[in-house]
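Q: What would this chain look like folded?
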Amino acid sequence: MAHTQSPCSSLAPDFAIRRCADIRAQLEAAGLFASETAPQATNSWRVSPCPLFLSQEQLSFFTKLGPQLLSFYRAQNRLYLDSAKGTQPKWVAQYLDQGKPEALIAYSRMKRFRDELPAVIRPDVIPTQDGMVITELDSVPGGIGLTACLSSIYSALDDRPLPLIGGRDGMVRGFAAMLQAIRRERTGCVAIVVSEEAREYRPEMTWLAARLREQGLQVYCVEPRDVRFTEEGLRLRTEAGEEPVAVLYRFYELFDLLNIPKAELIQYAAKKEWVAVTPPYKPALEEKSAFALLHHPVLRPFWEKELGEATLLDLTTIMPRTWLLDPAPVPPSATIPELRLGDRAVTDWRELAAATQKERHYVIKPSGFSELAWGSRGVSVGHDLPQAEWAAAIDYALASFSTTPYILQEFHKGRIYELDYWDTATNTLVKMNGRARLSPYYFVADGKAELAGILATVCSAEKKIIHGMKDAVMVPCALQPS
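A: My prediction, written as structure tokens:
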């Protein structure tokens, strides 16, 4: 099995440990690493003395990916709206609207919001032995402030700055450019509104807001109840007094709207165009089933026209085959497109229940609009479950279709990376073989998606699902020295 070794492997252990202690101290001072000195922080992880290094070829891949994903969002938005009008297959909009309140669907389709797209694009990318694989797209992602802070810290570890992807301040500058493009001629401040459910991300967004204010942008991280509604629009009490809100950055999920204080007033202000809200209230653009639409043979002519053959080939190569688990019976003369068990075509989802462990290299997860659809919740990995539990997961997903549609997606195993981390219990440097999730952040301004930084989350090799946890290593990515 191939290993990718870090250029930092030559660091003397004592020096590497001191470096890790310094990194952690800076993170604690920033309020982002949970400890006695940073009680407001909510997360901790294993600290590594170096970033994760990527090749020039990998950097070129990520640089190209942002504009491709923006094109994908643009095409997906058009497909959904055309489907709702009846000029594309009606089942597309029906699938994407499944389980959502009618009022939110109607709001998302308003003409004034027609062309609005997510201004932050973050795919979760798994490097495999055969290339990169995108497991999902997140338009309300965590990690923006954390990646910005890590980039700032790691870029300044040596006298000679490390070649961090995006640079030391790329994340802050990218987020600022995105906000300024959305604000346009509006006057007022920016409110990053973080819900109670997303409270674990409040420290990093508070840190980010402070850095943006240092650059002269009036940006504040607040709770929903801090925003005040008036007949002229939304207002916020700040250190400089009460200010109008020009841009509201939505750090809350649309399924959680009923639990967001003043959510309806925020929607009303956006409808009146008193405030710009990003990401837009478009639940159809936050569904993992979009991957299934990309691979659907009936829709191929649409994607070829909207994306072009080259981009479509790239995206269908890196986005794994995905199916929406619709319990409607398949006609006897039909099969589920491209889904096979060994050499057998599949005509009923429940046939998957009898698949052998080798045949069930699939993942089942909620498509979206659910508290289970983020943070690796609600995920079932086929080859990691006993057959009875796998069969139960299929039955549960099919039974949930009317309220929370689930998807079936091919599972791709990540390649092995070798890196060191600081074990604070023994004060030693430990070598870990792990699998990585790379999370590039693209900020959209003036119709262009620019790469601002990449966060690497590395979990031990036996983990099937890679996500931020106390046993994971989390570092920014840098370009490997030539």
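The longest helix spans residues 56-85.
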